[in-house]
Amino acid sequence: MSEQLLAVERLSVGYGKKTVVHEVDLGLAEREILIVLGHNGAGKTTLMQAIFGLIRTQSGRVLYRGEPITGRKPADNVLGGIAYVPQGHGIFRSLTVRANLELGAFVVRDRSRLEEDMETVFEMFPILRERATQIGGTLSGGQQQMLAIGMALMHKPSVMILDEPSIGLAPNLVERVMRSIQTINREFGTAILMVEQNVRYGLPIAQRAAVLKTGRKVYDGPPEPLEDRVELMKLF
After folding, report:
1. Backbone angles phi, psi at 153, to 5 degrees
2. pTM of full prediction above 0.90
3. Most buried among 58, 71, 122, 139, using CB within 10 Å?
């Protein structure tokens, strides 16, 4: 197997004495879209937070470009090229769209790039250009999700971790968000690690899928077999 851009090795994570994620192995290759599926409470979000350094691990390790980053501070992960977009959009609700995007670029040392990078986001999400001076918390749910992804894109990450990007969105907006994720992957070469409940829209854009069941990985392979709802339900 070729070296993974991001690798999770026998990672266990929990809260107090309770283990939620049990010895999970996971790998993300360069330019890959990997979708992680599972029932509510399967440990998907806990796994993503542990990878990004938001919660402590019990055992195992996380490697990025072959180097261990287990427990590394989220800010250092951002500096290293890993972005995280949490559930609930993860924007600064009291600030304007433009101010949110500027904050998304806080790790970019060359400030002359700021307007160029912001223009890239506006080309991907034209509605954000129209709403540039609007307060983030007054945007629709779909627009807030676009803004959260745009903020992550501002520092040109090598890996983007997305936790339920379609949550709470109408089907037409889900399609738009999924297309934007494909565009980011294709045009910027960003590897995508995505937790997604919406199998109908998430599976078609993924190159690989993993399934968690009660904190354990029960499937890791091509997404096509999971498009059969019967087979997917067996795993759940």
Report:
1. -70, -20
2. yes
3. 139
